Amino acid sequence: MKRLAANLLLIILSAVYVFPIVWLIMISFKYQVDIFSIPPKWIFAPTLEHYRNVFLNSSVIDFLANSLIIAVGTTGLGLLVSLLAAYGCTHYASKISNRFIYSLFLLRMLPGVAVVVPIYLVASKTAMLDNYLTLILVHVCIVLPIAVLMLQNFILDIPKELEEAAMIDGCSRFGAFKRVVLPLMGPGLIATSVLSLIMSWNEFLFSMTLSGYSTQTLPVGVTAFMADKTINWGEIAAMGVVMIIPVAIFTLTVQKYLVKGLTMGAVKE
Amino acid sequence: MNLIELRSVSKKYGNTEAVKNFDLTIKEREFIVLVGPSGCGKSTTLRIIAGLEELSEGTVLIGNQIVNDLAPKDRDIAMVFQNYALYPHMSVYNNMAFGLRMHKVSKDEIDLRVRECAEILELTDLLNRKPRQLSGGQKQRVALGRAIVRKTKFFLLDEPLSNLDAKLRVQMRAEIIKLHRKLKATMIYVTHDQIEAMTMGDRIVVMKEGEIQQLGTPDEIYNYPLNLFVAGFIGMPPMNFLDWDPGVILGVRPEHIRLSEKKGGAGLTDAARSSNKEYSISGNVEVIEYTGAEKQVFLQTSFGQLVVRTEPGQSIMEGHGYTLSFNAQNIHLFDQSSGMRLQHGFSKKISVINE
């Protein structure tokens, strides 16, 4: 009975999360008339019309490429910076470094809208608008606080004697980090990169403001189908599906490590 | 040649001083044991020698070279950690080969040395396993192997046996002693276990609160403890302390007291009698602990509770009164206020550290 209740709860919860995605996919295959029919149609004649429109009448491939470049760049740079920051704050711990970690969260506490205008002005004055690097740097700032905190927990999970043993065995501190700490952080690195990839991939506000024709990302591209009078829901949904697919594939591939990574920080073996 | 020398070494963490003004000279091929209760600074001292801990004051010399600022990797040391610290992502073979690779030893030489060392420690069958597939005792041997394969001049061992069960601990104790003889290396061994210290050390450093209490051979430490702390810390069951004269504490080890039937009745305690050679007091047996090899008898006397080790064959009854007698040769007198030893007859034999 308890099991049944638990299962029921899981089913309901999954439904809550899965329903919008299912709805999105359904809309992307519906004719315009079916999209607005009341009551909603669960069974309908499918069409690829919206996908055709998306791929033929927009630069979706460019958007996809831009998103990919920015997300991968953000993840790469973000991981590098946050790994060094997390390591430094763990091993040279002081009152300052502890505060530093939490002060990073100020970045997250500020609503993006509050800083988007100043950042826009800086970027425009330095001719950095419509530039991959600008977007990557801004995205790194968004990802950094969580990445540092996550990675710090993973580093704390590795006994410091392991590093000391490596240092006595002939490694420098950096050598010990590279040869012993880093290999043991695999799951942590994967979990952090998934998170950072998704955050950058979905980011809208800054991408919208700071990108131009050549750097538009997918979330920004979606808005192209919102005209003054009409909103092309079918195309928007199709583009949403296109947007979900790469992240979904990546996440499912590394799922095994992701689960391990997300729990490893919390549970001591 | 003095292999390692610590000169007035101190280590402070904020306001607490973990190691105070520590002087120690370790000879070549010596097995030296640092022993003391937890928090006495013994591990910190070891980590200072290893270079894992920066010292606040003083000098550390290895050979005749000052190594204060030398990185651990340049000190020609190997270390065994309490929790073994095996690299979890490497096989036993690679755990042992790692240090040699870092020192750019040739591949053939590495293979030779790892296999030779695995042979000594009976690890040959386990070389391809990962640490998580090993039992506690096996992990311990790999940790030892990782250290000895390096063939360094000296080895630092930080409570290497404390995570093992009692039986394995005794076994590994003997293994380490054998290894020490075989390798002819200098070993510095940290433990909180006084039995390990007594059985393994050529010399023992007894520490408390960051300070050396006494430095000497097991024999000196056991028979001529310099103060109340050392007297009470070394020996199991611990030495009995009696408030003998005002300001004087008399210590006598449980094995040096004889029990005999008390003549003339069951009064709880009589006044103590002492002649030049023999001391005797009376007491009542409260508890008897039988260990198989001996009986440990706890008695209540007018000087407080005492424990006596007796032959298992001697018949002793709980609740009965006995006479406890011990020879003047076997007593230790300490000053009550300072805790320092009062007899000086053998001060030549022992190296006095504390003033």
Topology:
The complex is a heterodimer of chains A (269) and B (355).
Chain A: H1 2-29, H2 32-35, H3 49-57, H4 60-91, H5 95-109, H6 112-125, H7 132-157, H8 160-168, H9 173-184, H10 186-202, H11 205-210, H12 218-222, H13 233-253, H14 255-264
Helix pairs in contact in A: 1-13, 3-13, 4-5, 4-7, 4-10, 5-7, 7-10, 8-9, 10-14
Chain B: E1 2-13, E2 16-27, E3 31-35, H1 42-50, E4 57-62, E5 65-66, E6 77-80, H2 92-102, H3 107-120, H4 136-148, E7 154-158, H5 166-183, E8 186-191, H6 194-200, E9 203-208, E10 211-216, H7 218-223, H8 228-233, E11 240-243, E12 248-252, E13 258-261, E14 273-274, E15 278-290, E16 295-301, E17 304-310, E18 321-327, E19 331-335
Parallel strand pairs in B: 3-8, 3-9, 6-7, 7-8
Antiparallel strand pairs in B: 1-2, 1-4, 4-5, 9-10, 11-12, 12-19, 13-18, 14-15, 15-16, 15-18, 16-17
